[in-house]
Each structure stands twice: as C-alpha cells, then as structure tokens.
Design goal:
The structure is a single chain. The protein is mainly beta. It has one domain: Rubrerythrin, domain 2, CATH 2.20.28.120. The chain is 0% helix and 55% strand. It has no helices and four strands. Strands 2-1-4-3 form a four-stranded antiparallel beta sheet, with no helix packed on it. Strand 1 and strand 2 form a beta hairpin. The radius of gyration is 13 Å and the shape is elongated. The chain starts with 7 loop residues before the first strand and ends with a strand. It binds zinc ion. Zinc ion binds next to loops.
Length: 58
C-alpha cells in the first residue's frame, strides 16, 4: 500500500557557523538533486546565517 509523497525526505537544516540544527524541512529527492543552502535566522548566532541540510531524520 504505497502512498503518494514517499519521495519526500525529512532533513535537518544546520547553521554553517555554529553547527546547531535549527530547522527541519522536507525535500523531494526526485525533483531536487542539489543540496539546500538557505539563509535563515540562527537563534544561537542571533543573526542570519547560511544553513545547509544535514543528515536525514528518521
Ligand atoms: Zn548559528
């Protein structure tokens, strides 16, 4: 009983400055090949930093 949406993987978004995982997002691995790199607010750095995707979450 395969349902739609199985290609979406759950990922953490990690601050590239302090390495804290601040966000969780999903990505469609079929449509999106490249790694995500987003500018987001980091509460640890208390400024906007680049966040990259980390390991898959279970
Ligand atoms: Zn940070």
């Amino acid at each position: 009983m395969a349902k739609r949406g199985d290609h979406r993987v759950k990922l953490g978004l990690v601050c590239t400055v302090c390495k804290n995982r601040n966000y969780v997002t999903t990505r469609n691995k079929i449509n999106t090949e490249e790694k995500l790199l987003l500018k987001k607010f980091c509460k640890h750095c208390r400024k906007i930093t680049e966040h990259k995707e980390s390991e898959k979450l279970k």
